[in-house]
Task: structure prediction
Amino acid sequence: MEFDDEYFMKEALKQARLAFDAGEVPVGAVVVWDNKIIARGHNQVEQLNDSTAHAEMIAMTSAFNQVGSKYLPEAVLYVTVEPCLMCCGATYWAKIGRIVYGAEDVKNGYKKTTGTNWPFHQKAQLTNGVLAAECGQLMKEFFAQLR
Amino acid sequence: MEFDDEYFMKEALKQARLAFDAGEVPVGAVVVWDNKIIARGHNQVEQLNDSTAHAEMIAMTSAFNQVGSKYLPEAVLYVTVEPCLMCCGATYWAKIGRIVYGAEDVKNGYKKTTGTNWPFHQKAQLTNGVLAAECGQLMKEFFAQLR
Result:
């Protein structure tokens, strides 16, 4: 069975809900290789007391270990929210072949700083807006409850 | 005794030489807090089989643990080579107060992608060119021996 982007984004959303329940900014990610999930990650900045412990970083480091390679050109990274500059840079170094994200992040997404420049690997493909409403709704709920 | 930027950059260079001797792209970093080195890191991409294991990432994660805080606004990050997009993004999240680097990196430095946009924290200060010749020479030697 061939799974589609919505299927994998729903899996990333499950990770985002784990972050939400742990009091973390609710962002989740999965890395897919050959139509299988090989790594998962959710934001753990508070739990690890590490401001770089974003969902994507955790999922990618897990994927390197899983595959035994520091380059993942055939992998797809699904993440519920537009990645930040740091995470885009990480996908560049990892040579992630495709990045799929859900909701836009006007405040901290990569587009704010890079403008029209491309922060991913030259060969990477990008898809956005997959389950954007659900992904964004979880963020809104999180920040609403903080107020 | 008050140490200066050259003193701390020499310590970052020692880290870069550790990377060089291990067959890694020779980049080193130290994090300084209150005139003391609280964390060190060198590039370990090959050793850890993790393309995100840059000197700065390792030094910053070590610094979070050392200080017990995920924000380091009073810290200075010294790194031998112009940081990449990922590492700049990490300094943004960590709210690193000042970044000092040595040699420029035309190929992979942050300026290539961000143009005139500022990828560091809004309040961060930046100094470049400290021991640039020594920092750059080590990189040149490394890439020359690969050919």
Summary: Chain B touches chain A through 33 residues (CB under 8 Å).
